Amino acid sequence: MKIYLLSILLTVITVLGSNSLFAQSGEVNRFSNESLEARVNDVKLFPNPTVEHLNVRIDNSRLSEASFTVHNIIGNIVETNVEKVGENEYKIKVKDLAPGYYLLAIRDEKGYFKETYKFLKR
To answer: What is the top-level taxon of the source organism (predicted)?
Structure first.
């Protein structure tokens, strides 16, 4: 009787575990329409690593007013100059920063979009 219950329990665990494994692996939803759609607010930083300026381009943007904050690796805010060079394109002057890793925080005025990106200043 114990062996019978144990075999049923193992069968149930195997069936449930395999279903959740496929759902977590992403293979089932690999070709869904969602993966084919353009990402909203697709942020690109270039060149990375950088020496003088960090260019930021936000493709498929829905941001009304984007604000940028540069933080050093321990979280302190670093003063930088941000220049808007085009529609959803910005240039951040990093020439005066010490070499190392920095974090660029991008936010919109309403707080709907908050993202942080890492870049290297050489």
So the answer is: Bacteria
